[in-house]
Amino acid sequence: MRIAFYAPLNAPDRGPPSGDRLIGRMLLRALAEAGHSVEIVSRFRSYDGRGDRARQARLREVGLRLAGRLARRLAGGTEAERPRVWLTYHLYHKAPDWLGPTIAQALGIPYAIAEASHAGKQADGAWALGHDAVAAALGVVDLVIGLNRSDRAGVLALLASPSRYRQLPPFIDCRPLMTARLDRDRHRGALLANAGLAGDGPLLLAVGMMRDGAKLASYRLLARALVRLEAKPWTLIVVGDGEAEGDVRAAFGPLGDRVRWLGRRTGEDLAAIYAACDLLVWPAIKEALGMVFLEAQAAGLPVVGAANLGVPDVIDEGVTGLLPAYGDADAFAAAVGTLIEDGGLRRRMGAAAAGFALACHDLPTAGRAFAKALEGLVRG
Q1: Greatest CA separation for the chain
Q2: 245-290, pLDDT tens digit by residue?
Q3: If DSSP codes are grouped into helix, strand and coil, which group holds residue 60?
Q4: Which residue among 14, 150, 218, 302 is least packed, with the fewest CB closer than 10 Å?
């Protein structure tokens, strides 16, 4: 069937790498591999990050005009060309959906959302317009597919029926990462040689864009935690770049050459780096899910994250990784220190992590469940 796809926050095929874009691409792949024809019908970005009410009003005006034009275009196609479902990926008060409800109603097709959140505290705040728009969309939606359990209660409260909510796991394509894991020794040797390392002690890995806000806060907390572990043997490998790179490097300044900077890496190059390392460390400040944890586990790495938001959904606590208290540098350092010291535990967790990612979060299985949820919506 034909599916109209829209992501009001970040178009999955535009912009720098991010977890949000990765999830969007995985949704598209899952639908394509299930035999559906998916069109990204708009790349209109409704996001306002500053709380500028006048800008939000302009975005609403532009979005509603665009919705009218798109509805006419889609309705004017042949029966085979018209979408059977409208799917919006990721809406919240800073990036509401001004297109989907209007177009789905005009075309008489089901309106579905993958990943939504609703924050009641924003009702009278700077994003009140987006807050109300999300509430309105959830009031008419036919199906919400939740990828983050922390959003469940707020979303369910606004649905016409609890039956319109379906919780599914986020997913990635584990195959490239598992293939890299099979060649771990070669990848590790290449990384050690390129970084000028002797291989003493475990290789810790941090992967994240270097942006102001939550990403920078995560890097800073990681740096504070690792300062507490200077007496232990380890080297940190950092993958990522961005406008806050200077601030990130400054945060790790006291650690000197204990840190190696690899810049932005993607695809097979990034998979090889995951496979070469021993432990992923990421404090996950304001991280909705943390797709980096799934990537690392698929490559056979145990992970240290944080007990917050949707991160516990993608880590099997005590089996594939550790979830110290959120935002606590001492607790994070203690968790990392445990896995630095206990190589046997690291290896057991790494093996369990690869199995967990494949069984619960791999594209062919979890992605198929996502596609079937949309198919069932149309059949219903």
Answers
A1: 69
A2: 999 999 999 999 999 999 999 999 999 999 999 999 999 999 888 8
A3: helix
A4: 14
